Every structure is written in C-alpha cells, then in structure tokens.
Amino acid sequence: MKKQIVVALSLLVSTIGFSQKSELKAAEKAIKTGNFADAKSAIQSAESLIAGADDKLKAKFYFLKGQAWYANGNASSEDTRKAVESFNMVQEIEGSGKGKYSDEVVELKTTIINNYLAKANAALGKKEYTKASSDFDNAYRMSPKDTLYLYYAASTAVTGQDYDASLKYYEELKDLGYQGVATQYIAVNKETGEEEVFDSKSLRDISVKAGTHIAPKQVQTESKSAEIVKNIALIHLTNGDDEKAVAAMKDARAQNPDDLGLLISEANVQLKMGNKARFKELMEEATTKDPNNPELQYNLGVISAEAGQDEAAKKYYEKAIALDPSYADAYNNMAVLILGGEKAIVEEMNSLGTSAKDNKRYDELREDRNDLYMSAIPFLETALKLRPKNIQAAQTLMNIYSATSQTDKFKAMKAKVEALKAGN
Predict the structure, then answer these.
(1) Core-most of 182, 311, 346, 401, by most CB within 10 Å?
(2) How far apart are the first and last CA of the chain?
(3) SS3 state at 219
(4) pTM value?
(5) Mind giving me the DSSP string for 162-191?
(6) Long-range contact list for 387-395, CB < 8 A, 24+ apart?
(7) β-pair partners for 220
(8) Could you give the CA distance from residue 3 to residue 301 in angstroms, rounded to a whole number?
(9) pLDDT value at position 179?
(10) What are the tens digits of pLDDT across the range 215-228?
(11) Contact (CB, 8 A) for 221 and 189
C-alpha cells in the first residue's frame, strides 16, 4: 500500500511539473505573437504551482511574467510596476552571476527607464508637471542608484504645486544624504562666443578637436543639499505647518548660513506666527549681510513703527529711500509716521481751557501741527508722483493743503481726487 501512495505522489508531482511547463510554453507563444492578454492568463494559471519549482523554472516564469505585464511598452503604469517586480525577481533568483535571462532583463529594464524618462520630458514640454514628476519617480524606483531622477521628481512636483508629493521626495533625498554634485564639461562656441555644457567629456573634446569650440574646462556644480532642506521648509510654510517650517529652516540655515533668502524666509515665518521680536532680530541680521537692500530697511521700519519705536522706524525708512529713491511705500510710510504725531497735539489742544496761558499754548500747538503737516507734504507728494493712482495719498494731501491754507494746491488736488474716484 505504501508503494502505491509513493507512486501516486510521484505521478502528481509529474503532472504539476508538466502543467507548469505547458502554461509557460503557452505564455511564451502568446508573447511572441503579441497576444499579451493570453500570456497573462497562462501566467496566472501557472502562478499557484510555481512555488515548488526549481530556480531554473522560477526564473523563466518571472521573466515571462515581466514580459507579459510590460506588453512591449504598452502597459499601464501599474502593470509596468508589476513587470519590473518580476524582472527584479529574475535577477534575485539568478544572482549576480550570468543567468539565462540576466542580459535580457537588464536590457528590458533599461528600455523601461528610458521610456519613463521620455514620457517625463514629453510631459514637461506640455507643462504637465505632475505627470512628469510621476514618471521621473518611476524611473528612480527602477534604478535607485540614479538619485538624480528622484531630484527631478521633487522639483517638477513643486512646479506642479503637488506639495505633498514633492515633500515626500525631498525628505527622501534628505534621508539619502543626496548632494547632487556633478561634473560639467564646458567649452566656448566659436560662432556665438557663449559657453555650452556637453553631456560628456568625449563629446566636448570632439567639438574642440573639430574646431567649433574652444577653451574647454570642467567645473563641479554646487551641492543641492541646502536647496533641498530649504524647499522642505517652504513647503511646510505653504501647507500652513509653521512650526515644522521653522524647524526645517533652522536645519537649512545650519547647512547654508550665508543664504540671505533663507534668512528672510525664516523671518517671515516668525512674523506670520506673531513673533515680532524674533522677526526684527532676523531682519537686523539680514541687513548686516546685505546692508544695501532697501526692502530689508523698509521692513525693519514697518516692524519698528508697529512697536512704537518711531525714531528707529524713521531711520530705517530714510535708509530705504536713500538706497532706492523710487521706493514709493517708504515715502508713504514716512508720511504716515510723521502724521502719527498729530494725535498727541490734538489731544492737548482739546484739553486746554480759555485762559491767556492756555490760548498761548494753543497757538504754539497749532503752529507745531502746521509744521508737522509741512514736513509730511514732500513725502506724500513724492509717493503720489511715484504712484499717481494712490487715492489715499491724494486725499491726505488735499486735506493738508486745506489745513495749511494752500488754496491753489488744495483745488488742484481736490480735482485729482474726484478724477481718481470717477476712474474707480
């Protein structure tokens, strides 16, 4: 009886082995004729039986499965991923040695990568940035050593405003310690006189030898690590994750302490979070790095004015104007700062009585207010000259001209205000 069971089991194993080979032969035939639907069906029939097969048969199974799902380049993204997984299994089974299918698998995977890159570049040409990002990512997943593809996936996702995807890619790049430093092969085009970057040293050298280019050189590109952590911070800011943005920016600044844009970005986040003291501190640091930047001086003026530090604000506005005489907002804010002193004068005037002493003080205060108006006029006039449609500046000037008895200017400004209102 035992002998009969052994014979029966032997027959069963033989039947399974025959079935596997039969299905794989059917799949192979279907692939050759381009009938990938039938090839998939045959592969699926054999899949449940493949676990007990030897490595030789397993390698063939996964090779054919990869071909069936890839469909000669006409597969969907999902099926292409499955095909790549199968090709990876072939390489895993056959090991680092030269197996029967190794060369073909490498060739197929290279073709798939190139197809992804071609699709990504075509999408970029159509400004379909999200699609381009996905295809660059697909290319990277197939060849993880080519981290440049992941960098392209991140940057194109940002351009397409797919911030969740770009954040994921950038954080992966950061975890990988990606630097992105590359060698560029450069030569000057004799006809245009401009430098051109070549894909390789050999191509550059051929052009130089042919006489179309001169002055060959090679340079190393800068590391992209600071850019990566900076973009991580800016994406957090865009998503409203202020705390994460600040933490990421500190990380970014630690890697690139001289990046002025990064410093200002952190300052703006602090201001958005209501940390005005920290904002001012960072902006002052920025002015030491770029003392001739009028916008930095102006922003320090704004924050100083909000803090009630009028003299400091005045100095910052004056500096901004000195650096950029066409800075309309600086003129306007200087006038606002000056006119802000009117409130205290008016309050004291209203508090006075009718005694001779009070009347004398009232006249002094009226003169002070008049001087205040006169000192604000040049800034308002310049602001209006730089921005002729600034109706608030025009209305303020009209009122000041009236208060200082400049009748002709009052009439002219009144006409301008009415014209601006009619234009609106």
Answers:
(1) 401
(2) 105
(3) strand
(4) 0.59
(5) -HHHHHHHHHHHHHHT-----EEEEEEETT
(6) 387/328, 389/420, 389/423, 390/328, 390/332, 391/417, 391/420, 391/421, 391/424, 393/332, 393/335, 394/420
(7) 183
(8) 100
(9) 86
(10) 999 888 877 887 88
(11) no
